[in-house]
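Entry 12.
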Amino acid sequence: MATTEKPIRQSVSLPPRVARRVRSLARARKTSASRVLVDLIESGLETKDGEKQRFLDLAERLAQSKDLAEQAKLKEELARMTFGE
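Predicted 3D structure (tokens):
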């Protein structure tokens, strides 16, 4: 038997510009602003998980690499991910 999780009510304050964009997306999708927020949050969380996995994959490649040129490239890419460009 499938169980569904009970939604948890959460109050969030949004900057006016963001709130307008959320309402606009909701109208365009013919759904609620709450549904749009949930979709955006889930998408953001998945993106963060993907970034973390990519970082860990690069770190693993760096640990395994014997090629100095590849090591330098991987270090640069990891630094860019960590500190920005």
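Annotation: The helical segments are 16-29, 33-64, 68-83. The chain has a mean pLDDT of 94.
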